[in-house]
Amino acid sequence: MLSYAFIVTISAVTGGSYGVIGNSTSAMVIEIAIFVVLGLGLVMIARGWFRMSRWARGPFIMAQLIGLLAGISFAFSGASEQVLPGLILAVPSALGIILSFHPVVLRTYSDSYRRPGSDPTQ
User: Fold this and answer.
1) What residue segments make up the domains of the chain, in order of their start?
2) 22 backbone φψ class: left, alpha, beta (φ>0; ψ -120 to 50)
3) b or e along 84-108 (b: 16 or more beta carbons within 10 Å of the residue's beta carbon)?
4) What tens digit of pLDDT does each residue of 8-65 get?
5) Rounded CA gap, 84 and 88, in Å?
6) Which end of the chain is more exposed for a tag (fewer CB within 10 A), N or C?
7) 114: left (phi > 0), else alpha (psi -120 to 50), else beta?
């Protein structure tokens, strides 16, 4: 998402209208801001996921569900040029959902969670 925001920013600076219908400056600014915020949110989720933070698991699963639903929507839209991008989006999203509920992942999250008041040296 950050790369898409970068592409739209370059397009806006060079006078193009990539990403939005028409050539509205305010629409481009809003689109860039939305994709930067979403992209930074996904970066924070990934950072939390790799640090085994419990808060990151819920947003990660929500992002995968959005990717899965968007991919399915693309793949079954009826347009032949959207089938491959839909599958490229849906398959990794489905794998992310499945793997986030895998027993090894659940056990690792459970083991890394320190309960309030517990001594971290034990």
Assistant:
1) 1-51, 52-113
2) left
3) eebeebbeebbebbeebeeeeeeee
4) 788 777 876 666 665 677 778 888 899 899 999 999 999 998 888 888 889 999 999 9
5) 6
6) C
7) beta
Cα–Cα distance list, 64 to 11, 28, 80, 92 (Å) = 29, 26, 24, 8
CA distance 24 to 5: 16
DSSP line for 2-48: HHHHHHHHHHHHTT--TTSSS--HHHHHHHHHHHHHHHHHHHHHHHH
Q: What is the pLDDT of residue 72?
A: 94
Reading the block at residue 76, the tokens are: 């079954």
User: Which amino acid belongs to residue 20?
Assistant: V
Six-digit token string for 86: 């839909």
Question: By the 8 A CB rule, do 89 and 71 touch?
Answer: yes
Helix, strand, or coil (residue 120): coil
